[in-house]
Design a protein that fits this description.
The chain is an alpha+beta fold. It folds into two domains: 75 residues, no CATH class; 34 residues. It has one helix and four strands, in the order ββββα. The strands form two sheets. A two-stranded antiparallel sheet has the order 1-4. It is elongated and about 115 Å long. The N and C termini lie far apart (99 Å).
Length: 115
């Protein structure tokens, strides 16, 4: 590749037995570049060649290869911070409801005695 050019490579990192994993990957690619026409008869549909890419107008450059480290991280499980508080909140609401129903019942009995 020429200076400033880059290639994106996507792959699958296998062997993820722990939270973090690093492995060495080897990649080979062939750059596709535009090329000049070698066709002496440009309007002949059966003849001519546009370089080493056939009639596509592109040529294949020298294959490029490189090795690089691939790092993978498994997402941590979600924290369950609210699950312990939910049971306490439900118990508090139940106690509040029980207390309110006792007070309402007691007031109704007191009002019934006065009349």
């Amino acid at each position: 590749l020429k200076p400033g050019e880059y290639v994106e490579v996507k792959g699958t990192l296998t062997g993820m037995n722990t939270m973090n994993h690093t492995d060495r990957g080897h990649t080979t690619g062939t750059p596709i570049v535009p090329c000049a026409s070698h066709n002496d008869h440009p309007f002949d549909p059966n003849g001519g060649d546009n370089g080493n890419g056939g009639n596509t107008g592109v040529c294949y450059d020298t294959p490029v290869e490189d090795s690089d480290d691939w790092n993978g991280v498994t997402a941590a499980p979600l924290a369950q911070t609210g699950s312990a508080v939910v049971s306490i909140a439900i118990a508090a609401l139940a106690a509040l409801g029980a207390g309110a129903s006792i007070m309402i019942t007691k007031r109704n009995k007191e009002n019934a005695r006065k009349h």
